[in-house]
Amino acid sequence: MNINENLKEFRQLSIIAIPLLVQQIGSMLISIGDQAHIGRISIEAFNGIGIVSSMLSILIGIVGYAGIVFNIKGTKAKAEGNDNEYYSQFIEGFILSLFISFPLVLIFFISGKDILRLIYGISGLTLDEAWTYLRIMVISIPVQLLMFTYGAIFKIEKKTTKIMYSSILCATLNVALDYLLIFGKFGFPKLDTLGAAIGSAISICTNLMIYVILSRGYIKYDFTKPELIIKGMLYNLRTMIPFMGQEILEGSIFGILVTAILSRMGPLILGTYNILMQLVGISTMAMYMYGTALLTCLSEAMGKKSLKSLRSLPINSIILSEIFYIIIFLIFVFNRSKVGYIYTTNIELIRSVKYTIFWTFIAYLLNAFETIYRYALQTIGKASKVLYTSFFVNIISILLIYLFSSLINMGIYSVLLVNFLKSILLIIMYGKSYNKHILNNQFNSLDVEKLHTVTKNENV
Questions:
Q1: 119-140 CB burial, b ≥16 within 10 A, e <16
Q2: How far is it, in rounded angstroms, from Cα 130 to Cα 151?
Q3: Can you tell me the distance from the alpha carbon of 185 to that of 18, in angstroms, rounded to the nearest whole number?
Q4: pTM for this one?
């Protein structure tokens, strides 16, 4: 591709990714203010709300892939000019979100307190505060899943500024409601933890209502063929399973095992790791937004059967992700003597972060290559292959971290070294697999029954 074509793809990806990135940053900053309000209730409330928020976030992250499937398949249908298929995919995603979420709501509403006690081992006032928050915030499960599905509409239509403005507006509303309801200001009752839950619930429901209103011009609600809807919904549910497995593996199990290994080395190493991962999370924020943009743009390229775009889009996504990562993390590196103060006043911990931050930057430098090619493979219908590959590599990684940390006493550097090596291995495996399938035209956009060819003479 020439420079103009690359610049066109940079713009195509950034139109979707930049508003999502701004929304993410804005919501993160507002969330800090929200946490400051909650922290003034009591330490038990702060801990209880934190536990529930973390649990719901992990759960929604695992089961919330109906919107991703709709994003991929809906974009492809839109690019092919098949509006009826586009509307059908939305309805299937809509119903699937409700189908998944309502049993979870029922389980938590009936047994939520017992679940919190069993999983987190909390009791007393912390358990009471957590349960007070959970019994209201359980509504966030169906609301968030529906928001993923409606949000996919704006990604497909390349109108992600609507997501940005709506999310920042409702996050601001959340902070305001927390102030009024937690502390009982301006004539409102002082509700403490219950006020925090009500404020958050109102805010996310408002966000969903805005999504519904703004999406009216892009979709149609057609429930006249229930048998076809159920069939498509069940197929999409099977499609989601590898995505969910990947989220459980990398989003939960791998992190828990690494934390378990490091926690045995003492609080200093574990604290250093937690702060460094916060910095990595901030630095890789753009990577995930460009990965989300890639889902839409690749699906569109498949609908148009553009082999050139299928080859170039992942590379351009990596370039943009790396630019953001390098700039942001270098700011942290150049201010390494001060960055620890953001999270702690412990001098020993601040010093530890200072001495390891550069090597953390190097260790995660290649993550964009690995992550973007993972998104690309999932988009072309190879989510199962990604899951199997990732499972194999992560098992080896955990074993190496354990060996390096216990036998060679590498401490936190065992995690950094293994992550770097893991990225290299996954880049080779994912990149080779993606290019192989693209060159052989074996992409199917999650539909194994309808393989598309780009040229006449190549076999699927």
A1: ebebeeebbbbbbbbbbbbbbb
A2: 29
A3: 36
A4: 0.82
